[in-house]
Amino acid sequence: MTSPLPIVQLGNPLLRQSAATVTDIQAPATQAFIEQMLTTLYEAEGVGISAPQLGLSAQILIVASHPNPRYPQAPTMNPVVMINPQILAYAEERMPDWEGCLSVPGLRGLVPRHRSVQMQYCDRNGTPQKLELTDFPARIFQHEYDHLHGYVFLDRVNTTLDLSTEQEYQRLIETATSA
């Protein structure tokens, strides 16, 4: 098993840059980095992660929805590694929901995202793929895709009134589930 990598935090300039295209997907360093991404994602109990969050300017992201303390209602899916993803289409319908980020600890924001998104990408074997995600997995993809282009979820909230601390957000979840 590989060791987790430190997660880059808000303020690091790498989070505000467009990530570089991956040219050699099969390179041992690329494959080892993907393994470290997966390890870091599991250790941090995240549902998605991007290469810039781990200090590498590369167009690699992982969508890995599963229930956890931060997202107890998340559906379960196998992790999907996406290299050089491109969006093909969005649903017009947008849905607001609360997001957090491993690179922005302690904050949540109410972010409107497209309900579904269709994308193409290469898998970790270099094979071109197409996929359509809806609801929460689509939200994860859009969040991580933003990281590849220098955006964080805070850039997507409509107003600062749509921000909350993680502690207050968790209190609201507990209140809603016990009602």
UniProtKB/TrEMBL annotation:
Database matches in HAMAP family: Pep_deformylase
Primary enzyme class: hydrolase
Record protein name field: Peptide deformylase
Role description: Removes the formyl group from the N-terminal Met of newly synthesized proteins. Requires at least a dipeptide for an efficient rate of reaction. N-terminal L-methionine is a prerequisite for activity but the enzyme has broad specificity at other positions.
Record text on cofactor binding: Binds 1 Fe(2+) ion.
Family per record: Belongs to the polypeptide deformylase family.
Binding of Fe cation, residues: C101, H143, H147
Pfam families: Pep_deformylase
Recorded name of the encoding gene: def
